[in-house]
Amino acid sequence: MQMGFGLYQQQTLKLVMTPELRQAITILQYSTVDLLDFLRQQVTENPILDLSEKNREFLVTDVTMQKETNKQADIDWKDYIRANATGDDTYYQRGSAPAQDYDPFNFISAGGTTLEEHLLEQVAMLKNVTPLEKRILNFLIGNLNESGYLTISEKEAADILNTNVEKIEEMIWLLQTLEPVGVGARSLAECLLLQLRDEPEEHTLAIAIVEHHLEDLAEKRYQKIAASLGVTPQEVQQAADYLRTMNPRPGAEFAQGTPRYIVPDVYVEKVENEYIVMVNEGSMPNLTINRFYQQMLQKNEADPAQRYIQDKLNSALWLIRSIEQRRMTLYKVTQAIVEEQKSFFEKGTAGLKPMTLRDIAEKVGLHESTISRATSNKYVQTPRGLFELKYFFTTGLNRADGGEASSVLTIKEKIKAMVDAEDKKKPLSDQKITDLLLKEGIEISRRTVAKYREELNIDSSSKRKRF
To answer: For the RNA polymerase sigma factor 54 DNA-binding domain, which residue ranges apply (predicted)?
Structure first.
């Protein structure tokens, strides 16, 4: 066979990811808050687009009308442009949730006092403290972490401040006398001891446990601690219960965290005996086409800017279509989830059925990847609370009696209920829980029960035992 260079024609089929298609996929993944940020960015880049902060009316109020309206997935863009030209410049989202005057950001409380400010105020009120000692205290306060623990050693502090270690230790002791109790500790044990010694009553056993058996306490080796200290396991358990009332992070109450608000992307309301799905567009501004550029496009004379305006208009209309497609996809997917999980809305977690992305994809006629994008980072407000859409997708286990499979979340709820109702002096072992579930028709292995128990942060039966 002779090899060489040449020009050949060949036909191939391949999927080309256009910028418009990539934008539509990206918009589908956005949550309501992310979409709002994206739209504001697009307005700065495309002069054709305008965002108007107007309250919109809830156009669809009748249940039957809403069902018919949501079946319409296409928009007549020519009618849309004509409507804008006549002065109706508002782009309404059909089937969306009503606009509300409630703004969660109006309820953000002002930043409170920080741990550093709280301690510096106390230092300023101390008497018989030299300027050098105040300087050391201020330095130590600046080296506390959010939990209130000292993050610098005595030697490091002494080297930086050009003083002796004894002086640093003296100031650490003074720092530990300030509020909140336990601040300035260098370890968990020291933090607990500071709080125990500040109590009006002496807790000798609790102090001994913290000083010598803190690791055994964490592992709940009560019998080992009791044998070492010459007390009963019941006394050790009572001391452990008391130690749980201590605060291992005394500075946490002063932590300045940014509040994170979750805005539902979809609402599910129960009207009579039917569940109605509404996409949340109440917090979204109105997306409009700028009238000035519309009038320029209607001019007959040749204008060098016509081509630029036409390109920007096409981009704007594609953006509007992508937003509408996102709304319709989100509506269809949520509607299918509600239909599949109707028992959940009636009974709660106990009624949650196993469901996969493929089940919903087949129901709405979309690809699994589209369902995954539509439910990613999306939340739905239901009569039973706020849930992530991914929450409703769960695997299941077949029943031994051949009945309908039980979801993993349902099984976890059963395990938790069994543990809550058990005799604490004789807690249920994993094998016993396995046997009880089998009596209910749920065939599950002991290893799987142990896995679910650990995911629920439930200790083993030996650690749950009360003496």
So the answer is: 307-466
